TrEMBL record:
InterPro entries xref list: FUR, Fur_C, WH-like_DNA-bd_sf, WH_DNA-bd_sf
Highest taxon of the lineage: Bacteria
Stated family: Belongs to the Fur family.
Signal peptide residues on this chain, from the entry's feature table: none
Keyword Transcription regulation: yes
Molecular-function GO term, any one: DNA-binding transcription factor activity
Organism, as annotated: Candidatus Allofournierella merdipullorum
Protein name (database record): Transcriptional repressor
Cofactor(s) required, per the database record: Mn(2+); Fe(2+); Zn(2+)
């Protein structure tokens, strides 16, 4: 992957955030530093960074894709109230054992996303 100032700005933005930003959020954050930057360029750079294994794409059905700086294996929790995405570490041993017990399935991988209400929303509502 060739170096470009635009790609560097996009990468730096993803690396500096822990909130799993969307392409629109990244574009909004970097456009003042690079006035000629388009949203399409942000998308192309994010796709290239994902393909190069430098950024991880987080897909939530019905939502814009998010981008994650953490490449190590982990899962996510999506808050159904505020839309926040958080990293979670789960013991997936039982799931891995279930997959291993089904050799007729050619499982190549999986992504686990939990849906619920984050602690900030729960505190705000008094629950």
């Amino acid at each position: 992957m060739r170096y470009s100032r635009q790609r560097e700005l996009v990468m730096r933005q993803v690396q500096s955030r822990c909130d799993h930003p969307t392409a629109d959020e990244i574009y909004t954050a970097v456009r003042d530093d690079c006035p000629g930057l388009s949203l399409g360029t942000v998308y192309r750079n994010l796709n290239g960074l994902v393909e190069a294994g430098r950024v991880r794409r987080v897909t939530i059905p019905g939502q814009a894709d998010r981008f994650d700086r953490t490449l190590a294996e982990h899962d996510h929790m999506f808050c159904t109230r505020c839309g926040r995405v958080e990293d979670v570490q789960l013991d997936k041993t039982p799931l891995d054992e279930m997959i291993a017990a089904r050799p007729e399935l050619a499982i190549e991988g999986y992504a686990l996303t939990l849906y619920g209400v984050c602690s900030a929303c729960r505190e705000a509502s008094g629950s």
